[in-house]
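Hi everyone,

Forwarding the result from last night's run.
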Amino acid sequence: MKKILLACGLLTASFVVNAQQEISYEVSFPNAVHHEAQISMTIPNVPTGALKVRISRSSPGRYATHEFGKNVYNLKATDQNGKALNFRLTAGDVYEITSPTKTVKVTYTLFGNWIDGTYAGFDETHAHMNIPATFAFPIGMDARPRTVKFNYADKQNWKVATQLKPTGKDTYYAPNFQYFMDSPIEIAAYK
């Protein structure tokens, strides 16, 4: 009986630790007519030292470099209270937040008008997201689970199609970075 209780306790503790470590994204489409999405990423429990955030350069199954960072602009980094954090672009696809706080929020605008299996595309009829072309990620936190919430109330009859696991209204879950990166998303009024 003690072994069962211990196992249950350890399992519960691992869920609590994962929830505290979960990297969460929110995506909205206020300017879809101009092929833009607004994306935010919240990273809790940031380790001490500089935090590096990357925009992918390639995509699973594609054997070329695509430089997805070229479609990112208006990038900002803030602490949990909305106070701006200093960052610098250290490579074409890597941002370094030199003095991060325990929780960091990164927001940016993503331009997407190339709808294929490699890039992202947004307009008034749908949103197509290849994850590497869409979502920034913190370097060195691959084991952390991810959630993504979509805000598209103004889009009539849109629904989400993805292999990510639904966890609530318009919120989806990936157990780790690799699963997340290999989970394309389509949002539209499909039948």
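The CA atoms of residues 34 and 71 lie 13 Å apart.

Cheers,
N.
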